[in-house]
Fold DNA-binding transcriptional regulator, AcrR family.
Amino acid sequence: MTQTRKRGPRGPYHSGREAQRAILDAARAVFAEHGFRGGVLRDVAVRAGVSAANIIHHFGSKEALLTALLAERDMGGSLMLRTSPAGFIAELRDLVRRNAADPDMIRLFSTLAAEATAPDHPAHEFFRERYATVTQETTTAVETAREEGVLPSGPPADQIAAGLIAVMDGLQTQWLLDPGFDMVAAFDAHLTAIGAD
Amino acid sequence: MTQTRKRGPRGPYHSGREAQRAILDAARAVFAEHGFRGGVLRDVAVRAGVSAANIIHHFGSKEALLTALLAERDMGGSLMLRTSPAGFIAELRDLVRRNAADPDMIRLFSTLAAEATAPDHPAHEFFRERYATVTQETTTAVETAREEGVLPSGPPADQIAAGLIAVMDGLQTQWLLDPGFDMVAAFDAHLTAIGAD
């Protein structure tokens, strides 16, 4: 396993798992800054302290590296609404607060989601399914919240759910462009405006 | 002016203006699909039917080509809220309808805005200023709409403005990922939810 002992900024790695961890961390940083299509595998390699061939050895391809990154716990945890019927609005607020503590992850997600709107992007299906799932879950949560009187009745629940997801995504762009922008306060204001209790 | 007569898919061009138009159209398509950083000047050249050197001749650099593209009328028109105190809500609805008719422009804007959140991106300042201006204008429009009773009072106007801009941006991502998603209906539902009259 010569390649896992290759020296670099973070090397040497004593196990394949260590090397993979370093490659994933490097890929996250490079893709967050340049996007997947703009991100160069060589830059990932340099940052991780391995060779490009070593990355292919561990992950198979640049696309497979992206898939591994997207499947990671952090990414999923931050994207997914942890909806609980008892505290939907509280969960939403908590999600935005967690996101506000993790600008690098949000930058990665925003950039990838935008470029993955292209049908031929390797993460296109991932994001389509992710949004479909999150929208479905949020719609159910809106319906429950209405039954409990936590959200007022009004337009169809799926449209309200789409709007909630949209405002979270859109506020992230404004916050990434201007770190002084208080997206937590703006999201709370939005909840007040739609009559959340 | 040999270069403006160079033959290609769209050539020959009989004037520098024709060639510039073809290059801008090609750049819009390539950057919309791959982002600015992922977009390759050579692909712009092939699509426009000119040489990469010809693009440099006309625009100076890849960054300057992006700047020229962003400064274009269509781009500005679609980004900017054409606020008029008399019909703010109508203007918002109209803006979303216009955007829904122009997926390519919206894809370009979404992708560039996301990657331009990186401080070293050549369009970073452009988007920072754009959002600052649009937020300022929308805040004023929200204040006027409240005075006229078209929007209810509530949280600070600048936060409501940020939410309106965010929901428009976020719905675009959902619509680009799933062309069957009705972002016009979702936006109308959002306006109803915040009590717009």
